[in-house]
Specification:
mainly alpha
Length: about 170
């Protein structure tokens, strides 16, 4: 049983190391996807920004208000897709700003508050690599250490709760 446990621990450590190495790469791919969506939305808003620059001193909100308050049904209906584009742009800008931190902060944000659609898109087209840069190696060793520590703590707890008391050896 002891040999099996050691092999299990080594395999778990290796898997955790490989998983941990992926974390910086996933963050990088998430950020690239976010940038691509932001560029797309900015391109879609470009014409409306030009109109806002010409007639509303650059205020897209004023342009939206004008559309929403218009008596013309076409302009009023046009306000909804413009607002969706505008809100999507604001959302992506907030995401980008939240990611202006270190690797751990980025990971925490993506896991806790990241755009679920972007997370799913990133995961769906994720390309696994084994980068050997400093962040990937550090991340891999941190995840590996945590995994081994958790397993060891579980094992120790199990033995304390359910283990047999140690026999003392007679002194000769």
């Amino acid at each position: 049983m002891h040999t099996f446990y050691r092999y299990f621990l080594v395999l778990t450590a290796c898997a955790a190391l490989l998983l941990g190495v992926q974390a910086p790469n996933f963050v990088d791919q998430y950020e690239k996807r976010l940038d691509a969506h932001l560029i797309e939305v900015e391109g879609n808003l470009r014409g409306y920004r030009e109109i806002a620059d010409t007639f509303f001193a650059g205020s897209l909100r004023a342009l939206l208000d004008k559309h929403e308050q218009s008596a013309d049904a076409v302009f009023k209906a046009e306000a909804k897709p413009i607002r969706r584009l505008f809100e999507r742009h604001q959302h992506f800008l907030q995401e980008k700003q939240a990611l202006e931190t270190g690797l751990i902060g980025k990971l925490a944000f993506i896991v806790a508050k990241g755009d679920r659609q972007l997370v799913h898109e990133t995961w769906g087209s994720y390309s696994f690599t084994v980068p050997l840069n400093g962040a990937a190696v550090a991340s891999g060793f941190i995840v590996m250490t945590l995994a081994v520590l958790i397993i060891e703590l579980i094992r120790l707890s199990w033995h304390k709760l359910f283990g047999m008391p140690r026999r003392t050896q007679p002194v000769h």
